[in-house]
C-alpha cells in the first residue's frame, strides 16, 4: 500500500509498504530517517519515540497505515533548520547524558515533550515522564541533569 | 499476502557509502578547533555527541545500501536435539528469496568459531546444543519475506535429554555436550562437561580454620544476567569485486572478529575488511560473534549487500550472557576480627559453548576472596558445559558473581563477631603491598579501607522523602507508580560492599593495542589525526583519545578516524582496558610523533635558537615551547608540508598463567576497586524494593575525563542494581528453554528504579599505567549488587542467598 | 495482509461484518507487538484510528460513556473525578507513550488477565457496549471475560464504548510488579465503595485465568458494613474485619506460577493489596464526611 504523511514538516510518501510494517520501519528503512531507534520493537524501551499529531508515541507500535495523513515529528526535527541544537539536545551533550546514544533520540523527544508541557518539572515529574525510555549505559543520573539543565536554561536561570 | 519489494520509489535521503555520517563509513570525528584546550583531566564533551543528539550518528542497524537484501536466522526451538533432516526447498522456492543456507553450504574447511576455543558451529550440524542455536539462514528482499521463508524450512529434531546443572553434567552416565574435545583445557578437567577448572590454594586452610573463633558457611546463587545493550545486533555485509567482503558491524573487537570470520569464509584476512559502525552499548555481549559470519556468507552467496538486524527477541539468543553461578563459601575469623581463612567452590554455568568461560573461571578463582588479606585460602572455580544458553563476557565477569557471595559472607561473619560490617572489612582490607591468594603482590595503591570510609562518612539521605503536603508521592515509594503502598510496611535498610576487579587481559595473554597518529598542517593549522581499531561502544574512548593527543601534542584540532581493520588491533573494549591500552597506545604514538616533530624542528630551526639543543621541549598551543615557557616555533612552520605519521603497538607489562594446581602466578596487570553504600526502602509486606541512594567511591588512578568516569560509575552501578532486584534470564530447568526473551519479562531498571548515585572519585596514581590511570568501567558493577542485598537484609532480617531477589523471597515463610 | 481504513463507525461495522476474522487495531499497543514479533499474521487489519467518536467520552447524567479508544492519558487527566478507580489503574499502565495510544477497548479486546483496566471495570460495574451491523448489546462486565485472553464479543462485533456509573464513593487500584514503572502486573486489585447502594465491588487481575471479582469478600464486607452500622458511623474499620476481607480476596484468586511470580506470592500479595486499598478507600470515605467537599 501507499502511505503519505508529514514528517518534520515535509510531506513524505512511501510506496509498496507491507501492511504489517510499523511507522518506525517506514521512517528508518523507506524514508531515510533512521534517527528513531529500534531497540525493542515492543513498546518497552522508548528508543523509537516520536510525536504523532503532537502526542508522544512509540513509533514501533503504530502501524504504518495508521500514520496516513498525520503529522510526525522525529528527533531529526528537533534542531533548527540552520542546525542549531534545541535546548534539550544541547543539554544532553553538555551534561554527559549521552554514552552509546542509542536511547538518546527517544529520550530527547520525550524530554522535549515534557518541557513543552511542564517547563519546570520536579525530579519526580522528570522520572515519571521518562519512565518509558530505557537507558542501559548512564544510570540516568546525567539524563536527569540534562533535563534540569535544559529547563533552567530555557527559564533563563542559568547561562545557556 | 506477499510483501512487496522494498523501497521502490520511496524518498531516500540516505547517503551512499563513505560520503557522510549516515553512510556506511562514518566520517572522522573532528573536534576542538577554537575550543578550550581540552587535554586530559578535563571534562571535554564527546566528539560524537552532536551526531548522536541529532539522530545522524549511524548505528549498525541504520545502515542501508542500494539493492540490499535482508538476512534472517532460523534458530532451534529446542535446547538439545539431533537434527534428523533439514529441507529448505520450499523456502528457496518462495518469491523474493535469494538464498537459503545450511551447514552443508559452508564454503571452507573451517566451520566453527570461538573466542579462544573454536567450538561454536557457524550453523548447527547434526545436533543443536542450546535453545536458539542458528540452524539456517535466509536472504530475501524484505524482512517479512525472509521470515515467511524461514518458517517454511522443515527441520526434524529428535530431542535429547538436557544437561542443565552440575548434577546432570557430571553425574554418572551424563551425556557429553561436546563429544570429542581437543581444546587445551580438556587435558586437566575432571570431566569432559567441565570446560575449565582453576584452583587457588595458598597456605593451609584446614590449619587456619582450627584457629578461627567464628566460622560461617553459605551457599549462594547468582542468576543469569543479560547485557541488554539497547542497539540490537546488526550489520551490513557488502560483497566486493575482488571476491572479498566489506563488513560494517557493531562489535567490541574488530580484529578478533576478523580472525574468526575469515577462515570460515575461506578468505584471507585482507579480503575481509571490517569497519566499526555505531555501537549501541556492549557490556561484553558483543565480544562474541553474532551476525558477522552469517551476513558475509549470504552476501558472498547472493552477490548482494545483506543486512541483518536482530529484534529484541532474537537478541536474547544472539549473544552470550553473564554466567549464572552457585557459590559455596566458608569464612573464618578470630575474635579480634581478622580473617583466618576462606574456602570456596564456585560453579559457573558456561552453557553450550566456551565463549570466554576460561577467563571467567580465572577471575572468579583469583579474585574469589575479594579485596581482603587472607593467608590461608582454598578456592576452586569451574565452568560447566551444559545445554543452557552460552555464557561469556559481561561487565565485571567472574568477579561479579564472587563479590556477591563473599560480601554476604563478610556481613554474616561481622554479625557473628559482633563487629560493625564496615569496621570488619577495614580490618581485613588489602592495601598496597598486600599479597593476593595467587601470590601476586599488589604493587599499586589499593585504598580499600579508604573507599569504605568515604561511602560511610556521607550523610544519609533524609527519611520518608515520599511524604509531601499533598499526601504520599508514590513515585518515591516501593512499588512506584503501581500504587501499592502509601507508607505501610516500609522499612529502611543500609548496606555496604566493596570489590576488586582485574584490569586488562590476564593470565599471560599478549594484550596490546595499536594506534596510528599523524600530524600535518591543514589550512595553515596543525591538525592531529588518531586512528585506532578501538570499538567505541559508548564508553567515551574517542573523547579521551582526542584529549590525549591535545595534551601530548599541543594541538587543539584532533580528528578521530573511524575504527577499522586498516590499522592494527586495539584489542577488546572490555576488561576495563581500553583507556589503559588504546589510550596508552595513543599516548605512546603521540610521544613518538612529538620526537619526530622536534627532530624536524631541530633540522629546520636548530640554528636559530640554542634552546633547540639544550632545553626540554614540549608542544603547546600549536607551538614548540621550552620548559621555561618560551615559544621557539609554530608547529605549522616546523611541519611545513610534511606529515609525521607513526603507528605503534603498546603493551602492558606481561602477566603469567596461573598454575593449574595451585593458582599461583602474577596473573593480573592491575586491580581496580570500588565501594558502595546502598540505602533502600523495602515494603516488607509485599517484598517490593525502592533503592533510595547508591553511593559509590572508586579509585580511578587518574580521571582522564571526570564526566565520563562518573558516567561509567553510574551506569555500572545501575547494572549491579538490576541484577540485585530484577534482572534474570529464566531458563526452564526441565527443557533448558529461555522463558522470558523480551523486554516485557526481562526487566532492566527504569529511571524510576534508579536512585541518586553520588560518586566520589579518588585518584591515586598507579605508576605502571599511562598517566597513572586505572581501568574504571567494571568495578562499580561488582559492589553495587551486594550493597543493595545487604541493605535489603538489614531491612527485612532475611538471609537472601540469591540474586535477583524477588518479592516472594522477601515475604512468605 | 490487507489494511482496512474505515472512515466512519458504520463503515467499520460493515467491514467487520464482511471480514469477521479482521483484527481491529486501535492504539496498536497489543496488536503491533504481536505483528512485530511474528505472533500474528491476520488477513486483515481493521484500523479504528479514523473513527473520532471512539476517542470521545460523555458524562451526561450519572453514567460515563467512554469511547473504546480514549487513551489512558486522557482517562487519567479527564476522568479522575468521575472514574477514579479506572484513572488510578490507567496511571499504572506502561509508560506515557503507551498511555497516549492504548485504551480500554484494546484492553478488553485482548482480555489478558493482566490487563489493568479490568479490575477497575469489575469494581465499577461496567457494561461493554458491543455493536455490530446487527445492533447493539450491553454486556455486563462480569460476563465479558470468557477464558484466557477470550471475551464475549461475537466475530462481527466491535466495542463502541464502556459504560460506567460515575463514582459515588472512593475507589482504589493497586498492582504489584517487580519494577517501579513499566511493568505488567504480577497481580492487581481494584475496589470501589458504592455508598449509594451500600455496596462494595472488587476486581482481581493476574491471579486467575480471567479477571475476576472477589464475590465472597464483597458480600462479607457489605454485610459487615451494614450490620456494624459502619456506613453511617464512619468509624475506623476493625482490624479483624480488614484481615478477614483480605483473606477472602486472597482465597478468591486462582493463580499460577510463572516467570513473573509464584502462585503463593500472588495470593499473599492480593491479601495485602485488599487490606490496604480497603483502608485507603474507607479512610477517604470517613474523611469526606468530616471535610465536606471543598469544590
Ligand atoms: C510496553 C507495553 C507495556 C504495557 N503495559 C501494560 C500495563 O501495564 N497494563 C496493561 O493493562 N496493559 C499494558 N500493555 C498492553 C496494552 O497497552 C493495553 O492492553 C492497551 O489497553 C491496549 O489498547 P490498544 O488500543 O493499544 O489496543 P490494540 O493493540 O489496538 O488492540 C488490542 C486488542 O483489542 C482489539 N480491539 C481494539 N479495539 C477494539 C474495539 N473497539 N472493538 C473490538 N476489539 C478491539 C484488537 O483487535 C486487539 O485484539 C502494555 C503494552 C506494551 C506494548
Ligand atoms: S523500539 Fe519502540 S519502544 Fe522499543
Ligand atoms: S546511552 Fe546507551 S542506552 Fe542510553
UniProtKB/TrEMBL annotation, chain A:
It comes from the Bacteria. It comes from Actinacidiphila acididurans. Keywords: 2Fe-2S, Iron, Iron-sulfur, Metal-binding, Oxidoreductase. Pfam families: Fer2 (PF00111), Fer2_2 (PF01799). This is (2Fe-2S)-binding protein. The keyword ATP-binding does not apply. Residues 1-78 form the 2Fe-2S ferredoxin-type domain.
UniProtKB/TrEMBL annotation, chain B:
It comes from the Bacteria. The keyword Oxidoreductase applies. Residues 1-42, 460-482 are annotated as: Disordered. Its EC number is 1.17.1.4. The keyword Hydrolase does not apply. GO terms for molecular function: xanthine dehydrogenase activity. Residues 54-161 form the Aldehyde oxidase/xanthine dehydrogenase a/b hammerhead domain. SMART domains: Ald_Xan_dh_C. Keywords: Oxidoreductase. PANTHER family: XANTHINE DEHYDROGENASE (PTHR11908), XANTHINE DEHYDROGENASE SUBUNIT D-RELATED (PTHR11908:SF157). This is Xanthine dehydrogenase subunit D. It comes from Actinacidiphila acididurans. The gene is pucD.
From TrEMBL, chain C:
Keywords: FAD, Flavoprotein, Oxidoreductase. Gene3D superfamilies: 3.30.465.10, CO dehydrogenase flavoprotein, C-terminal domain, Uridine Diphospho-n-acetylenolpyruvylglucosamine Reductase, domain 2. It comes from the Bacteria. Pfam families: CO_deh_flav_C (PF03450), FAD_binding_5 (PF00941). Residues 1-169 form the FAD-binding PCMH-type domain. Signal peptide: none annotated. Coiled coil: none annotated. This is FAD binding domain-containing protein. It comes from Actinacidiphila acididurans.
